[in-house]
């Protein structure tokens, strides 16, 4: 049978088929192909997340890689030595957070009246705070621990230990004026 021509056949209940060769419908084959392609394309687009954003005019959400780049990590340093890194959020970028934490650690390191043993972790509902005596140094949030694939409490203890080591090294290397 030539392409584009459909032969209509009806099978009766008795199993005998009746053919109506005089009822030919040219172009129906291509019409059915186009209709099938249209249905398949619309089904695919309805599953695509980009469709809903295109309809509203909004941008699709960033991928994990884009989000990680946007709120990148920054190193907390003491005298140029990287101690650990912190993650930022849109309202508080990583560089700003790292600088603030580094400044607090530097202030405690320079204060010999603040014993290293006073460094402690205090659990809070949102995460863990690291304190030096009564001075706040930083918070380790649940999101920080999740990023490192460890509970935030363990990460906070590891960071507290790293801060203690860095303060001890800072004090050992720092030139101190004799008391008068």
Description:
This protein is α+β, with helices and mostly antiparallel strands and 180 residues long. The protein folds into two domains: 7-56, no CATH class; 67-173, no CATH class. Helices cover 45% and strands 25% of the residues. The protein contains six helices and seven strands; from the N terminus they run E-E-H-H-H-E-E-H-E-E-E-H-H. It has helices spanning 28-47, 49-56, 64-70, 94-110, 142-148, 152-173, and strands at 7-11, 17-24, 73-78, 81-87, 119-124, 127-132, 135-141. The strands form three sheets. It has a three-stranded antiparallel sheet. A two-stranded antiparallel sheet has the order 1-2. The protein has a two-stranded antiparallel ribbon with strand order 3-4. Strand 6 and strand 7 form a beta hairpin. Helix 4 crosses helix 6 and helix 5 (142-148) crosses helix 6 (152-173). The longest helix is centred in the last third of the chain and has 22 residues, at 152-173. The radius of gyration is 34 Å and the shape is elongated.
List the helices and strands and how they pair.
Blueprint: E1 7-11, E2 17-24, H1 28-47, H2 49-56, H3 64-70, E3 73-78, E4 81-87, H4 94-110, E5 119-124, E6 127-132, E7 135-141, H5 142-148, H6 152-173
Helix pairs in contact: 4-6, 5-6
Ends distance: 112 Å
How much helix is in the residues?
Answer: 40-55%
Mean of pLDDT = 77
Provide the number of structural domains: 2
Q: How many distinct beta strands?
A: 7
Helix count?
Answer: 6
Rg, rounded, reads 34 Å
Please tell me what the overall shape is: elongated
Query: How would you characterize the largest beta sheet?
Result: 3 strands, antiparallel
**Strand ordering within the main sheet:** 5-6-7
Percent strand = 25-35%
Oligomer: single chain
Poorly predicted regions are none
Report the order of strands and helices. Answer: EEHHHEEHEEEHH
Question: Which structural class fits the helix and strand makeup?
Answer: alpha+beta
């Amino acid at each position: 049978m030539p392409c584009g021509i459909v032969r209509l056949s009806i099978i009766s209940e008795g199993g005998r088929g009746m053919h109506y060769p005089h009822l030919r419908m040219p172009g129906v084959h291509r019409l059915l192909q186009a209709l099938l392609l249209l249905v398949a394309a619309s089904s695919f687009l309805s599953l695509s997340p980009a469709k809903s954003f295109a309809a509203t005019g909004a941008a699709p959400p960033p991928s994990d890689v884009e989000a990680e780049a946007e709120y990148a990590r920054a190193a907390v340093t003491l005298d140029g030595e990287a101690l650990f890194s912190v993650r930022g959020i849109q309202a508080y970028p990583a560089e700003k957070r790292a600088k603030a934490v580094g400044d607090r650690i530097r202030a405690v390191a320079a204060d010999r009246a603040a014993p290293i043993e006073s460094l402690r972790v205090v659990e809070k509902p949102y995460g863990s705070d690291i304190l030096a005596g009564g001075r706040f140094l930083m918070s380790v949030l649940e999101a920080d621990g999740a990023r490192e694939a460890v509970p935030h409490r363990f990460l906070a203890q590891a960071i507290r230990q790293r801060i203690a080591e860095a303060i001890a090294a800072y004090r050992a290397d720092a030139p101190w004026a004799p008391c008068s």
